[in-house]
Each structure stands twice: as structure tokens, then as C-alpha cells.
């Protein structure tokens, strides 16, 4: 390609234009990044998807123990589970546990996290103190509650010292209070850590929002629920889903350490029933049938929570 230029004597002359630079070659995707993801993908398939599929397979088998012969049970395990009153007691106890523990924990943790996010005096120390239940092992937590709730424990001793000895009870051995004690342990163990999560998220909310609300006459209570809560609504949903899963699937360890599902079946939950039937009763087909139902309940719960807490904009 040529261009016209003017010489000093006024005549036009042709000048060759510099060659155009070649177009950059199209970038090819790197194959190395895909190769690096293969170990993680294999790990996920073997240790996550594999056990999940195994639950559905074992639920269709008659397997009375690890070393016993296995036979195909078709739908017999499902019929046995649905006809078992112990299963329905576990369903009721689990429903009560979720209906009480999760809302109380989320509401109280959000309020406590909002207080910490306001940076009151000593808020840094308070953040560390809230982490203490999360740093204690599950057996240690169970021992703390056993020491407080046993017949000669701290709670009964405190009631007797203030003249309310008539209210003393064997809290962990009473059918009317055993499940409530487990729910109290769930709330105590999870509220502090959840409050720290909320405080971290609320700390990223612009201060101007709260200041503008207070200039309009809103108090802390209205600012907390009408301003800050809608801003982090989706994050509240994520934390609620985590607490829902931890309560639904993790209650077996507390039941095992404190009540063994008793008295009777008053504190038997679905997750503990899975453990009990697999490792004590050696009925793996029954156990994994309950595991399948527990998985479906968790899936429905997650979808429901996600729909409730999704943003409206």
C-alpha cells in the first residue's frame, strides 16, 4: 500500500507505507490447566460420588453384616423402614430438632454478629471468645453437658442452692427433656462460630447505610432487620444451609455420646438411626435405606432454604 506525500518543491510523490503487522495468532487454550484438575476430579468421583452411589446400591440389598452373604432385597428394605415405628420416632425427633435449633441459632447468631460488627469496646476479644465452642472437640463438649445435666450435676446443684430443688431432674435420662438437652448442645456449639461468620459479612456493609437509617430515626433494632439483613440476605441463606446440614447429618455424635437414643427412642434422630442399624444392629440394608431418605430430606431442605432466602432483585 502507498501514500501520497509532498516534496520540498511542491510536487507530489508516492511513498510506500510500512507493512502492516501480522494479526496476532489466536490463543490456544492451555492443556496443562486441564491436566492439573484431573487429580481433584478423580478424588471427587472416588470419595464423593462413589459413596453416594453406594448408598443407593446397598439400600437395595439384604446385607445382615459385613461378612454375611448379600442378596437383592428389591423394595423390602423400604417396606421394613416405613413400617417401623422407631423410624417415625426418629423422623419426629429430627423435625423438632431442625425446627428449633436452626431458626434459634440463625436468629441469635445474626443478632450477636451485628453487635460485634458495630465494633463495641472489646469486640476483638469477643470474636475470639465466640470461637471457643468451635475449638472444643465433640467428646469434650459432651462431657461439659454431661457434667452440667447429670443428676448430681451443676444445673441441679444450682437449682437446689436457690431453693428450687423440686425442679431438679435427670435431664439426659428423662423422655421429656433428653431431646431438648441435645438441641441446647447443638445451639451452644454452633451459635458462636455462626456469629463470627455474620460479623465478618456485616463488616463489609457500607457504614453509610446504617448512618442514613439512624438519621431517619431508625433504631438499632430496625436498622439491623430492615437495612442490614436485606443486604446480606443471600449470605444468611448460605449459612442457614450449612447449619441445616450440620444439624441434620451431625447430630449422631451428640446422641451417641450423651443419650444413646434413649430413653426408649425419645432422642433417636435419623442420623443416629443410620449409625445404630449399621454398626450395632448390623442391618446395612435398613441403615442405608434410612440414609437415602436422609439424603433426599437434605436435598429438599437445601432447595427450600435457597428459595426462601434468594434475593428479590
End-to-end distance: 55 Å
Tell me the radius of gyration: 30 Å
Order of helices and strands: EEHEEHHHHHHHHHHHH
The beta-strand count equals: 4
Number of helices: 13
Percent range for β-strand residues = under 5%
Mean pLDDT: 86
Gross morphology is globular
Low-pLDDT sequence parts: none
Q: What does the main sheet amount to?
A: 2 strands, antiparallel
Can you walk me through this structure?
There is one protein chain. The chain has 313 residues and is mostly helical. The chain is built from 13 helices and four strands. The strands form two sheets. Strands 1-2 form a two-stranded antiparallel ribbon. The longest helix is centred in the first third of the chain and has 33 residues, at 85-117. The radius of gyration is 30 Å and the shape is globular.
Short précis:
With 313 residues, this protein is mainly α.
What's the structural blueprint in terms of helices and strands?
Layout: E1 2-6, E2 12-16, H1 31-58, E3 61-62, E4 71-72, H2 76-82, H3 85-117, H4 123-130, H5 132-135, H6 138-149, H7 154-161, H8 178-202, H9 207-215, H10 220-231, H11 233-258, H12 270-280, H13 284-308
Antiparallel strand pairs: 1-2, 3-4
Amino acid at each position: 500500500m502507498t501514500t501520497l506525500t509532498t516534496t520540498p518543491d511542491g510536487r507530489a510523490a508516492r511513498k510506500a507505507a510500512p507493512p502492516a503487522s501480522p494479526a496476532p495468532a489466536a490463543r490456544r487454550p492451555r492443556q496443562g490447566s486441564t491436566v492439573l484438575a484431573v487429580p481433584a476430579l478423580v478424588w471427587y468421583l472416588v470419595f464423593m460420588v462413589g459413596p453416594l452411589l453406594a448408598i443407593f446400591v446397598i439400600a437395595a440389598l439384604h446385607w445382615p453384616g459385613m461378612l454375611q452373604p448379600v442378596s437383592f432385597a428389591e423394595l423390602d428394605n423400604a417396606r421394613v423402614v416405613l413400617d417401623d415405628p422407631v423410624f417415625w420416632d426418629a423422623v419426629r425427633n429430627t423435625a423438632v430438632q431442625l425446627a428449633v435449633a436452626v431458626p434459634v441459632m440463625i436468629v441469635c447468631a445474626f443478632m450477636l454478629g451485628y453487635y460485634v460488627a458495630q465494633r463495641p469496646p472489646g469486640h476483638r476479644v469477643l470474636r475470639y471468645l465466640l470461637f471457643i465452642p468451635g475449638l472444643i472437640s465433640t467428646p469434650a463438649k459432651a462431657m461439659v453437658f454431661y457434667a452440667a445435666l447429670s443428676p448430681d450435676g451443676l444445673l441441679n446443684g444450682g437449682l437446689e442452692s436457690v431453693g428450687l430443688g423440686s425442679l431438679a431432674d435427670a435431664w439426659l435420662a428423662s423422655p421429656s427433656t433428653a431431646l431438648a438437652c441435645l438441641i441446647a448442645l447443638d445451639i451452644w456449639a454452633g451459635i458462636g462460630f455462626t456469629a463470627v461468620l455474620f460479623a465478618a459479612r456485616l463488616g463489609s456493609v457500607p457504614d453509610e447505610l446504617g448512618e442514613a437509617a439512624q438519621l431517619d430515626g431508625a433504631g438499632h433494632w430496625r436498622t439491623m432487620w430492615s437495612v442490614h439483613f436485606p443486604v446480606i440476605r443471600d449470605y444468611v441463606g448460605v449459612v442457614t444451609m450449612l447449619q441445616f446440614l450440620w444439624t441434620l447429618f451431625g447430630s449422631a455424635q451428640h446422641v451417641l455420646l450423651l443419650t444413646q437414643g434413649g430413653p426408649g427412642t425419645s432422642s433417636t434422630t435419623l442420623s443416629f438411626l443410620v449409625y445404630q442399624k449399621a454398626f450395632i444392629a448390623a442391618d446395612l440394608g435398613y441403615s442405608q435405606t434410612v440414609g437415602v431418605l436422609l439424603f433426599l430430606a437434605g436435598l429438599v431442605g437445601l432447595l427450600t432454604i435457597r428459595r426462601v432466602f434468594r434475593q428479590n432483585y
